Amino acid sequence: MSKPCIICVAITGSLPRKENNPAVPITVAEQIESTQEAFEAGASIAHCHVRNADQTPTSDPEKFALLLAGLRKHCPGMIVQLSTGGRSGAGQERGGMLPLRPDMASLSVGSNNFPTRVYENPPALVDWLASEMCTYAVTPEVEAFDLSHILQAIKMHGERKLHGNLYVQFVMGVKNAMPVDKDVFDFYVHTMATRAPEAQWCAAGIGPGQLTVNEWAIAAGGHTRTGMEDNVRLDRERLAPSNAALVQRAADLCEKHERPVATWQQARELLAIPTPAA
Q: What is the rounded average pLDDT of the residues 73-82?
């Protein structure tokens, strides 16, 4: 199998804190340094959140702007994907960074249960976020926590509500949402192959499911996501020393399954995302 595998690194997220793993990058400077190491290890997409000084999540466009500028300087060519996730803000506040014109942004197209709350993505907000991404030429990465989200993404793309090429990420292992289940994963892959054969897909496993889902995705010809947002450990006994270490682990799986790790140029070609002007 010669298709290059795109490795996305989710460097920080909204939840992991220094108390969970001292290597979790919180400040913009820490995130830039951690992403640069992950980029050099083989990641071609950086999925980014920003935090306040007290480590709480935020959707502050100014912090996103600093992070975006730093990543474009220190990781030239890397695809920068900003999060519009619901832990960092409410309503249209979640899309306040889209005028910065990042390469990509995450987009959840439906609601689902999280461990202690409902992750609300009402249709009106989904349509607004998608419209803003079209306005600013931002390619969405659809984060699918359920089969219905995959089907909705395919429908929205067919209706030209999503900018660029369709890119769907299967998220597995969130408590109360979709578990890490091989039969479900295989059906997700089948659904994409039969209903959106021109699209690209990716898969992410949360917590202890990260390594398992990384391997499933790579073996099945898809792309994969790793990083400290999803998992702060190498195994039960060891904390991950860096985001780069988790990226290297995914790259090793690519070698095992005879998949070349996608360069940033190949990732941009696969996703039809132009390189930003200097």
A: 98
Q: Which residues contact 190 (CB under 8 A, 6 or more apart)?
A: none
Distance of CA 64 to the CA centre of its chain: 16
Which residue ranges make up each domain of the chain?
7-271
The yes-or-no verdict on residue 86 having pLDDT over 80 is no
Stretch (H or E) spanning 164: none
Structure tokens at 198: 């021109």
Pick among 3.40.50.1980, 3.90.1170.20, 3.20.20.70, 3.40.50.1820: CATH of 7-271: 3.20.20.70
Q: Say how far apart CA 78 and CA 275 lie, in whole Å.
A: 9
Mean pLDDT for the stretch of residues 95-111:
97
SS3 state at 51 = strand
229-247 mean pLDDT? 97
- pTM beyond 0.90: the answer is yes
Indicate the helix (H) or strand (E) that contains 210. Answer: helix 210-219
pLDDT of residue 116: 87
DSSP state of 115: S
Q: How far is CA 31 from CA 18, 48, 171, 230, 245, in A?
A: 13, 9, 23, 15, 15
